[in-house]
Amino acid sequence: MSSGGVEIIGFVMEAIAPSISRAFSTFLKTAAGMILLSTLFLFGSYWYASQTSALHGWLSLGGTLVFCIVGSSAIASKQTITSVIIHALEKYKLGSKIIPLLFHYILAVDERKEQGERGITIAQLSEDLPLKKAEKLFQNAVNSLIRTSSQKSGISSWFKTKVSTFLLYKIEQVTLAEFRTEEQTAGGVNLILVRDRLSLEIDLLLINAVKSAGLKTTLLILGGIVLASSVLSYGLVRYLPV
């Protein structure tokens, strides 16, 4: 990893630090909401299964409790990371600060040595690159940065690494979508033009992407809890003799 990559990771971790104060309160609020929702799940599973036997009811209750604990922990963790990122994007415009650094890292002639490439030449900076080459350059850069962030140790660094990794993956997702749009309209990808355009709108794009991903994850996990609890309750009533 080049010094430029290390500097970017250091900048990202320092930039999200002021937003981490929201993490604990967000986790507690989400956990409290999930406790209330889990109470409904537990009541429903016990009520249904206990129609045939109290044993069925208690077994269903126990299984549903496990599902709720696992699911609630996942949702609370995801919402905590999401809230930190959204706060950093809204208040500190973190995305628009990272994009120029990240593209500078990609465009630097000597930055790709560890990937077996020398990146792109100065003459290519103003040219339209093939979509696959532009995607590979950006993905290699993001993966390299993520490997660097994972080398940090300590609880605080661990959480910052989780947030940084999620943020970098979202930046990659948004940027690659912009690459594809650029390729469709211009026949290639001009990294300079994409960088300048994203620098103006990346924060809003990231906020929408992060919120959408958080909502989808929450709904999927809640649906999984309901499905698992329903299958367990039905299976107990249907197949476990009393």
Protein model, in words:
The chain contains 7 helices and no strands. The protein is elongated and about 75 Å long. The chain has one domain (3-239). Helix content is 81%, strand content 0%. By secondary structure, the protein is an all-alpha fold. 31% of the residues are buried. The longest helix is centred in the last third of the chain and has 49 residues, at 191-239. Mean pLDDT is 85; it is low at 109-118. Helix 3 packs antiparallel against helix 7.
Number of strands: 0
SSE order, one letter for each helix or strand: HHHHHHH
In angstroms, what is the radius of gyration? Answer: 23 Å
Q: What is the tally of helical segments?
A: 7
- Give the amount of beta strand, in percent: under 5%
For the record, the count of structural domains works out to 1
Looking at this protein, list some descriptive labels.
single chain, mainly alpha
Short note summarizing the structure:
With 242 residues, the chain is an all-alpha fold. The chain is 81% helix and 0% strand.
Present the secondary structure layout.
Elements: H1 3-16, H2 21-49, H3 54-92, H4 94-107, H5 131-149, H6 155-186, H7 191-239
Helix pairs in contact: 1-4, 1-5, 1-6, 2-3, 2-7, 3-6, 3-7, 4-5, 4-7, 5-6, 6-7
